[in-house]
Specification:
heterotrimer, A alpha/beta, B alpha/beta, C alpha/beta, A: alpha/beta, Fumarate Reductase Iron-sulfur Protein, Chain B, domain 2, Rossmann fold, 3 domains, 3-stranded parallel β-sheet, 16 helices, about 40% helix, about 10% strand, B: alpha/beta, two-stranded antiparallel sheet, 6 helices
């Protein structure tokens, strides 16, 4: 593994496309090209630097030599993790995940508490015909702001006649952020635990709520699972189109859609969220200048959800909100819990509202 | 410098609601995850740092069931040379019984040491007594609440003890001795899962508690009970803005805020 | 002869207030109460116990658990073994209690917060006060450490002043010696003098949040303090710590955000005039001590408070 990546690093021609596409370059001390260079020469890297990366993946997509700079960052982090010398907040998130299977250290026994907000029962996935699993994951299971996502999606699925079940307390963190933090051992444990549960209950299909979870389940849990993985928008969009889910209400707002990196540029889901928004009566859909493949990262990924980097600079979330204001938007819609969390603060300040897609749909249900 | 460090696997109850079974017979921990005792994590780190600087070896010892091997692997990953498990099968609530078991084990197995570290207390029972009892029954000088080890010399150590109100006292203690380490003495390193896996390759010796004199328990739990509910707070309820308005009202009424 | 020996704690010439809890438990046990104290010119309300025995030992010698073993040997020689030996639940009290128990083979129960006379059982906290064990001791005088604030209401004045006795001190051991007191690093803020403390705990989740609570403290003109986890993680300086291992505070208003209320914390703030707690967990022990409570997301409450207060 180490040898493979070394070879990849050696193919780098230092063209700088990675840094050019990086949402952190210029405004923070982080320079991904430089770090790849240092990895090539095995020279010492300032240990604060790798933690700036948001794992948005832009560098890897743009790299003409398949160096995978974002993976190089993970390797640099792995070294720090192995040495035990990492920011305390990251350390806490990892230790919490080890004990309670979620980075916030909340009780695993309360992982399915969100279902209490529903007025219908959600079955365990083993009790479903379809063996379709709604993979809830940590932030949606525990964070009071993000808990509305599983609640809303459950309501929408219920209304559209889409059968689904959950794993409840048996679900563990998907590990997408954990792998990107560089804790591959912990990632493997989470993966093994989840895969064992998928197998035990004969899961055939997984619907992820967060693009981060979808990404890891789809691309990093191995090719042999035989389980179809999608983001919930990929199911809802066709349901709306076919009329299985009707949206009788109206939502007379100017809404601008922010592409989450893990949904858009990393997994090419660009149209389904837009189709859903366009189907909402009264809603006027706006677009950012930087949208779809070149959407600006909100800086919520790659472990950045759990700690704050040292540099002070204008956060991308704020830039994004200012762009939204300029476009005349009243609402920023997105389809990722991390984007919701990072955008909401500056948006509130500017009088804008951030809504996760499922929130808008539930309002017109 | 040979340091023995005691490390315990404890229930992580911080986020859990605990249930007492039957008529107060036991506390149900069946659904609670386990972790290393926080204080022991600091102790292991401190011991490893001393040995890294001055040479010697750290031996981690755990009393508990087979699952406690987990905290030994962790200690080894942090830098302990050996891990010993004293398999006691069941929980020993009495700190005296635990201390007796430790003394008997160290004597019988002739485990060499210069200093013994324990955590100030364990998160589960919060007794904070094993270190002190152990020091006394082994005839060793003792200090608890150690928040700093200023120097480690051939025949003594100088440590800082945490007292109340932000005060500390510096004391000089002859070695061999027993020290109970307070949390916050250092910043424990992160222990990666890979590190723990590598540590698994180091053999951990398992000893049967029954082979050592444990002494009879001097205290026993008659019953487990829930805490008595006190008066309780006046809960402010309603919409967020409303609740915060009420809170600011209270601050004004108390004269601390305009 | 049947008596309860109260090993009092005197530090830097002050008879610690928590001794009142040992005295209170002593009274509750219904035995003759004999209070042991070191040499020195400090005030004791001598009506609270039956006998005061002053040991002719310097304070730092007396506070050394190893010397205490020798001092107790003399007490036992003079009066026989007591039925109970009570220490304070504190840094030095717990240390000396455990060492004494080990030395004499006595049973020990620490952090005793209640006593059921009928059943003859002592309540001891487990899992940060989530449950309590009712303990019975056997095979010798029970050595107990007494939780501060738990029994002082039972420390009533008697009709007459205590019998005053003195006792020779024991020779000090040299295997552990006191060197000096170390004051923690001076900080410009003294949280014990603040009228209004905004205190943050583990519930803030993450170091990045600290700045935002600092800002709230600024807006509300409160001083920012924290509980042990926050200090251990170096999110706030040690001088800002409220609790038994930090400062004991009694502000007019103590606003606790994200603090669940471990006993060590409660002990450091429970005498505040007005305690307001904000916590997501309705079961958090701090609500038992608070005058006002809000169950909710502390970050949201923080942001809303800032917003309203600024307006």
């Amino acid at each position: 593994m180490a040898e493979q990546s070394a070879t990849r690093v050696l193919t780098c021609i230092q063209c700088g496309k990675c840094t050019g596409s990086c949402p952190e370059s210029g405004k923070t001390p982080f320079n991904v090209r430089m770090l790849v260079r240092k990895k090539q020469f095995q020279s010492v890297v300032d240990e604060a630097l790798p933690w700036y990366c948001t794992s948005c993946g832009a560098c890897t997509i743009r790299c003409p030599r398949d160096v995978k700079p974002s993976e190089v960052i993970i390797e640099l982090r792995s070294k720090l993790v192995e040495d035990g010398d990492i920011p305390v907040a990251i350390q806490k998130a990892l230790e919490n995940t080890f004990v309670q299977k979620n980075p916030w250290g909340r009780s695993r026994n309360k992982r399915a508490d969100w279902v209490q907000k529903l007025d219908f029962e959600v079955p365990h996935v083993s009790e479903t015909q379809s063996k379709r699993l709604l993979f809830v994951c940590c932030i949606q299971a525990y964070d009071p702001r993000c808990m509305v996502i599983p609640v809303n999606v459950a309501r929408l699925f219920q209304a559209g006649g889409m059968e689904f079940g959950i794993l409840g307390e048996e679900e563990a963190c998907c590990g997408n952020e954990i792998r990107r933090i560089g804790e591959s051992g912990l990632f493997e444990e989470l993966q093994e635990e989840n895969l064992a549960a998928f197998q035990e209950y004969g899961v055939k299909e997984i619907v992820a709520l967060s693009p981060h979870c979808m990404n890891v389940l789809k691309k990093e849990y191995g090719d042999n699972t035989g389980i179809k993985v999608s983001h919930y928008t990929e199911l809802l969009a066709p349901m709306i189109k076919s009329g299985a889910l009707s949206l009788p209400g109206s939502f007379e707002k100017k809404v601008i859609y922010h592409d989450p990196c893990f949904l858009g540029k990393q997994n090419n889901v660009f149209d389904e969220p837009r189709d859903m928004l366009k189907a909402v009566p009264g809603l006027e859909l706006l677009e950012f200048s930087r949208s779809r493949e070149v959407s600006l990262c909100c800086e919520g990924g790659g472990g950045r959800m759990f700690f704050e980097v040292e540099a002070t600079y204008q956060r991308n979330a704020e830039v994004r909100v200012l762009d939204a204001v300029e476009k005349g938007a009243e609402i920023i819609a997105t389809a990722c819990p991390f984007c919701v969390m990072t955008l909401e603060d500056p948006a509130t300040e500017k009088g804008l509202v951030v809504k996760e897609l499922s929130e808008i749909l539930t309002e017109v249900l | 410098m040979n340091i023995l460090v005691f490390t315990k696997r404890v229930a992580a109850t911080q986020e859990e609601e605990l249930r007492i079974t039957g008529e107060g017979q036991a506390v149900d921990l069946s659904k609670v995850p386990f972790k290393v005792n926080d204080w022991d994590n600091y102790s292991v780190e401190e011991a490893v740092r001393i040995v890294e600087k001055q040479g010697g070896a750290v031996t981690a010892i755990s009393i508990g069931d087979a699952e406690s091997d987990e905290v030994l692997r962790r200690a080894i990953a942090m830098g302990a040379k050996d891990g010993f498990l004293i398999d006691s099968g069941q929980v020993l609530h009495d700190p005296f019984a635990r201390s007796e078991l430790i003394r008997s084990f160290i004597d019988k197995e002739k485990v060499p040491f210069d200093i013994i570290f324990t955590g100030v207390q364990s998160e589960d029972d919060q007794f904070g007594a094993v270190g002190g009892i152990l020091g006394a029954i082994m005839g060793l000088p003792y200090s608890s609440m150690v928040v700093g080890i200023d120097s480690v010399e051939k025949d003594h150590v100088v440590v800082r003890r945490e007292l109340e109100g932000g005060l500390q006292e510096r004391v000089k203690i002859a070695t061999p001795c027993v020290l109970s380490i307070q949390s916050g003495i250092n910043e424990p390193r992160y222990v990666s899962i890979m590190g723990i896996r590598k540590a698994s390759k180091v053999e951990r010796k398992v000893f049967k508690a029954a082979d050592y004199a444990a002494g009879t328990a001097k205290i026993e739990v008659v019953k487990w009970v829930y805490p008595a509910k006190k008066g309780g707070a006046t809960m402010l309820a309603g919409e967020l803005a409303d609740v915060c308005g009420q809170l600011l009202g209270i601050l004004k009424e108390k004269g601390v805020c305009q | 002869m049947s008596y309860a020996l109260i090993v009092s704690e005197v530090r830097r010439g002050v008879f610690e207030e928590r001794n009142l809890d040992s005295i209170g438990l002593g009274a509750l046990l219904g035995k003759e109460t004999v209070l042991l104290a070191p040499d020195g010119a400090y005030e004791i309300n001598e009506k609270l116990v039956d006998t005061v025995v002053k040991v002719k030992s310097a304070e730092d010698v007396y506070l050394n658990p190893m010397n205490m073993g020798k001092i107790l040997e003399q007490v036992f020689g003079a009066r026989g073994k007591p039925d109970y030996i009570l220490f304070t639940q504190s840094s030095s009290g717990t240390e000396a209690a455990a060492y004494t128990a080990g030395l004499y083979g006595f049973p020990v129960i620490t952090d005793v917060s209640a006593y059921d006379k009928e059943a003859g059982v002592f309540l001891k906290s487990y899992y940060s006060d989530k449950v309590f064990g009712q303990f019975k001791a056997s095979g010798g005088p029970a050595v107990l450490t007494v939780r501060s604030g738990s029994f002082r209401e039972f420390a009533g004045e008697k009709a007459a002043a205590a019998k005053a006795e003195t006792m020779e001190g024991a020779p000090a051991v040299d295997s552990r010696t006191f060197v000096e007191y170390v004051e923690e690093e001076k900080s410009d803020i003294d949280i014990t003098k603040a009228e209004f403390l905004l205190s943050i705990g583990r519930g803030i989740g993450n170091q990045d949040e600290v700045a935002s609570y600092e800002e709230l403290a600024g807006v509300l003109r409160a001083v920012l303090s924290g509980s042990r986890p926050v200090i251990d993680k170096l999110w706030l300086p040690k001088a800002r710590q409220v609790g038994t291992s930090g400062k004991t505070v009694k502000p007019k208003v103590y606003l606790a955000m994200g603090i669940s209320g471990a006993f060590q914390h409660i002990a450091g703030m429970k005498d505040s005039d007005c305690i307001i707690a904000v916590n997501k967990d309705a079961e958090a022990p701090i609500f038992q001590y608070a005058h006002y409570g809000i169950i909710g997301d502390i970050h949201k409450v923080r942001d809303k408070l800032k917003e309203i207060a600024k307006a």
